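Fresh eyes needed here. Kindly weigh in on this sequence plus structure tokens:
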Amino acid sequence: MDSRPVALVTGSSRGIGRAIALALAQAGHDVVINFLHRRDAAEAAAAEIHTEGCRSVVVGADISCREGRDRLLAETLDVFGRLDVLVNNAGITSPGRKDLLDATEDSWNQVFETNLKAPFFLAQSSANAMRRLIRERVIERGTVINVSSISAYAVSTNRADYCMAKAAMEMMTWLFADRLADEGIRVFEICPGIIASDMTEPVKAVYDQRIADGLTPMRRWGTPQDVAKVAAALVGDAFAFSTGDRFNVDGGFHIRRL
């Protein structure tokens, strides 16, 4: 086990995924940068990882289809010969953000294929690869991190499919954590709150005011780096006797208050 550990981060050309990829590189991981549309952004992230003294590879793949997931994992193993960490970060919001009484089956299928089916089957194939690598003593242990959202438990009636897919991710995390505990693979869920990124830029003014009015106990936006620091801690030894846990990175939003 002389080579550096390898982390595969889906949707890592920008936002939270990019921050996680950089944090894991800073922690000593070689990183697979996955993108769908923005190769230029993915290559810029890869270049930044190289400045940390780690290696990276850029893989364009649509994780919502089996062929994309298979190619992503195959290229990871072909280039590095190992996989220690999977971060299921890629996801989409509900197209059109339609009221649930007007929601369409097309939107449902698109959101569930990307936000739930894709991470489930990528976790399955990655876990099987990790099990083999552990048996062969190529890696010591594995880690799977599922990036969820406060929408897992906070209702948005114009994003029903998104909320339901994210809610299901908690059960998915528990299922994999239970199944893989004896295999040397730990599984966690990170639940980000209101995070400043290009995806939330269109609603910045609205949430600036809501945060100032006390929407969250900590009255500031979260940053992708806030999420990334948690991911970096989870792949280390700090939580060696933990699995299946949800880690809220939401400024206290999850606290019920009167």
